[in-house]
Design a protein that fits this description.
heterodimer; A: MetI-like fold; B: 547 residues; alpha/beta; Rossmann fold; 2 domains; 22 helices; 37% helix
């Protein structure tokens, strides 16, 4: 193993073994492509469509997909479903990503400090994590969403507040094992400060599991936003989100099923794709899966 | 060489390997793991295969056992094991051969034993897998085997789990398992490398005794010429997948013909028994004085009454003068590494005194001690774990001085100069640790410790993970640095031979206590304590050299 490593020239990351392992994971690649397409559609789609998401075409109410000028059909008010889907996608994906960033930040911070300090500090922090985990988070989210004025930023904060614990646990375990490595002792021998050791020596070595956890968190955050909005406490109409589109579709399930199927499919595709990417990254970043 | 192998008739070889070539997957550092390898293991003999890491010795053993990973393929050659051709044989046939005709013992007896099965279950399992005997007879045979490998109280041992046993006992269990079906050939892959020197001596003796008693043929893989001298009848020397020399043990050890063998033998650390020549020094000031240092590890919870108390260092006292080296020698668990970490305050001591340049640093808090840290530096054991894989060499070297206020430009210049001083290219500055070999990484570790121009260097098993030829180079480098800078060194090692090379004084530790302290000539030639005598006697390869 040593000799190989010593001989390998400076690599670009896309030539690295990690990248190669990821490329071999077909589901992850499919997930990657799907997310790219979905994001592209949400960003560019609304500009390419002839209809605005709020334009009401009264003569074409309840138009089924692929009939007439609305290729995904229209809703009960005659608004173009494709335009609404893409606008909703912007909100849902943005909330998902921001919630992931925020929860990863909190989780990493708590995890690194708890893992490196250990002792009383670590115990208190990790018991706080246990405490948060033992709340039924969906009720907590609903209670918070009901009490606070719903807005995309509020929803993001609420989702992040209930999903950082997993990252914290993963990071804490990783840091606790890295803490015993000799390079950390070497850092202490050099007289580096604890903050320096935690965030500049240890953290870069724990990035693998953090990235995996973050990817899976996006999937969960998108799902969570959909729940809340579906139940009516999340993103408020007329601003569309995939969750509140489902809400509006409930009463027409028998007569206009595409109203539920299309945003439902978008949620499923986004969540599954993120989970596939997460799985692929987990396999690619796990060096133990490599036999040389 | 060719003449010698042809002279051996197939009849008296238990194992013969002919022109064996094994390919490595594409993109590795060489095309073949082993190339055109031919040798014979004669019946009733011990054949040692010796080579440094990456020489292909373990691949050879795994090929014979049929245990190669799928990505490594035999491309040509023949292996004849007790009359059966192995290469190309179906998997089922190979499985029948394993255990019955040939069996293997491994380097790490802890990971080679199943932690969830008792010793008895593991030994009987081998027999059950080959459908030998019934339950009662297997049990009886297992007890017989445990007795044979010298385990105390076999009845009790039978029901123990591996984690309860010491390293030497585990290796004995592995040997019992390997012997269960009375194989013709035993392959031992570095079976004593992970063991302490006294335990190693016992296991070597056990293998030799059993081999004689059962007239078995043993293929013994090692990197240590001392072990070869203890046990071998004949020797095969491998380098980079090729055999460079083979012959009887006496031939190879006393008059090696190939330059690589000569180099290897020359690099083996010898027990000198001579004191180191001292550099004439103007000041003979004391750098470090340790008085009654104690450390006890407590694990578990005192509250729930499950506390375990392990005394790691008990009442250690010594002094170290400027420019001198103190060796701290002991077996695993003797507390020598704990002592090193106490000295540099990576762990807190319980009681005692550590006077560094006259000042007691034991009582200092971390923030009070931080300004002093640059004066005491450490070289770590594991050249792979001790460098942060995500930092460049430049970052690794400069991060400390910069944190202590040195301007980055100056730190960078000093780092470059130091890199070439320790024998590395200055271009190493921008590269990552994984691009370097073990020996090179250890040089980087040394450069990191020297960045501060310390007064005291603590080397914790600094050469233990390296091949002998690299070991000799690193020892030379440390010696040179000490002569140039006048730094004092505490050199912690389990290897008495290494200690005898570089130390002015040696302290022998046993179970947390310093049992003897003195110059190498006293420790090696006139040891005062029984334990030191035992340690010195267990050093492999010394007996034959004297005789």
């Amino acid at each position: 193993m040593t000799a190989i490593a010593a001989n390998s020239p400076r690599e670009r990351w896309w030539n690295s073994r990690t990248a190669h392992r990821f490329m071999k994971h077909h589901l992850a690649l499919i997930g990657m492509v799907m997310i790219a397409l979905l994001t592209l559609a949400c960003v560019l789609g609304p500009h390419l469509l002839p209809y605005d998401s709020l334009y009401i075409d009264l003569r074409a109410r309840f138009a089924p997909p692929l009939t007439g000028k609305h290729f995904l059909g229209t809703d009960p008010l005659g608004r173009d479903l494709a335009a609404r889907l893409f606008m909703a996608g912007r909100i849902s994906l943005l909330v998902g990503f921001s919630a992931m960033l925020l929860s990863t930040l909190i989780g990493t911070l708590v995890g690194v400090v708890a893992g490196y300090r250990g002792g009383l500090v670590g115990t208190v922090l990790m018991r706080a994590v246990d405490g948060f985990l033992s709340f039924p988070s969906i009720f907590l989210v609903l209670a918070l969403a009901a009490a606070l004025k719903p807005s995309p930023i509020m929803i993001t904060v609420v989702i992040a507040a209930t999903s950082w614990m997993e990252v914290a646990r993963i990071v804490e375990a990783e840091v606790r094992s890295l803490r015993e490595r000799e390079f950390v002792l070497a850092g202490r021998m050099l007289g580096l400060s604890a903050t320096h050791i935690m965030f500049r020596e240890i953290l870069p070595n724990a990035m693998g599991p953090i990235i995996v956890a973050a990817t899976l968190t996006v999937a969960r955050a998108i799902l969570m936003e959909a729940y809340i909005s579906f139940l009516g406490y999340g993103i408020q109409p007329p601003l569309p989100s995939w969750g509140n589109m489902l809400n509006g579709a409930q009463q027409y399930l028998g007569t206009a099923p595409w109203l539920a199927i299309i945003p439902g499919a978008a949620i499923t595709i986004a969540v599954t794709s993120f989970n596939f990417i997460g799985d692929g990254l987990r396999d690619a970043l796990d060096v133990r899966g490599d036999h040389s | 060489m060719a003449v010698m192998t042809d002279a051996v008739t197939a009849g008296d070889a238990a194992l013969s390997v002919r022109a064996l070539t094994v390919d490595l997957p594409k993109g590795m550092e060489r095309v073949h793991a082993v190339e055109n390898v031919s040798f014979d293991l004669k019946r009733g003999q011990i054949l040692c295969i010796i080579g440094e890491s990456g020489s292909g010795k373990s691949v050879t053993a795994n090929t014979i056992m049929g245990l190669l990973p799928k990505i490594i393929q035999v491309s040509s050659g023949a292996i004849n094991l007790d009359g059966t051709t192995i290469v190309g044989a179906p998997a089922k046939k190979l499985r029948q051969l394993r255990g019955r005709v040939v069996s293997m013992i491994f380097q790490d007896p802890l990971s080679a034993l199943n932690p969830l099965m008792t010793v008895g279950e593991q030994v009987t399992e081998v027999m059950a897998a080959h459908g030998v005997g019934n339950k009662a007879s297997r049990r009886e045979r297992a007890l017989e085997l445990l007795t044979e490998v010298g385990l105390p109280d076999p009845e009790l041992m039978y029901h123990q789990y591996p984690f309860r046993l010491s390293g030497g006992q585990r290796q004995r269990v592995m040997i019992a398992m390997a012997l269960a079906l009375e194989p013709t050939v035993l392959i031992a892959d570095e079976p004593t490398t992970a063991l302490d020197v006294t335990t190693q001596a016992q296991i070597l003796k056990l293998i030799r005794d059993i081999q004689r008693r059962k007239d078995m043929s043993v293929m013994f893989i090692t990197h240590d010429f001392g072990v070869v001298a203890e046990i071998a009848d004949s020797v095969v020397v491998m380098e980079k997948g090729r055999i460079v020399e083979q012959g009887t043990a006496d031939q190879v050890l006393k008059s090696p013909s190939h330059p690589y063998t000569q180099r290897l033998i020359a690099a083996v650390p010898r027990l000198t028994g001579e004191d180191r020549k001292l550099k004439a020094q103007a000041n003979d000031e004391t750098v470090l004085t340790v008085n009654g240092l104690c450390k006890t590890y407590r694990s578990g919870s005192a509250l729930f009454g499950s506390q375990r108390v392990v005394p790691a260092v008990q009442d250690a006292s010594f002094t170290l003068a400027a420019g001198r080296t103190l060796g701290i020698v002991g077996e695993s668990g003797s507390g020598k590494s704990s002592l090193g970490r106490l000295l540099i305050k990576l762990q807190d001591s319980d009681s005692g005194q550590i006077l560094f340049e006259g000042r007691d640093i034991l009582k200092l808090s971390e923030s009070e001690f931080r300004p002093l840290r640059p004066r005491i530096q450490m070289i770590f054991q594991d050249p792979f774990a001790s460098l942060n894989p995500r930092s460049t060499i430049g970052q690794i070297l400069t991060v400390g001085p910069v944190a202590h206020g040195m301007p980055y430009a100056q730190a960078r210049e000093e780092a470059r100069a130091l890199l070439s001083h320790v024998g590395l290219d200055a271009g190493a500055f921008g590269r990552y640790p994984h691009e370097f070999s073990g020996g090179q990484r250890q040089r980087i570790g040394i450069a990191r410790a020297l960045m501060f121009k310390p007064k005291l260097l603590i080397a914790d098993e600094a050469v233990s993970a390296l091949d002998v030829s690299i070991q000799a180079q690193i020892l030379k480098l440390l010696d040179q640095i000490q002569r140039e800078t006048g730094v004092s060194m505490v050199f912690i090692t389990h290897d008495l031979r290494v200690a005898s090379q570089i130390c002015d004084e040696i302290a022998v530790m046993q179970k947390g206590r310093v049992v003897e302290r003195g110059p190498p000539s006293q420790i090696f030639l006139k040891p005062q304590s029984d334990y030191t005598r035992e340690l010195v006697a267990a050093i492999p390869g010394e007996r034959r050299r004297e005789s």
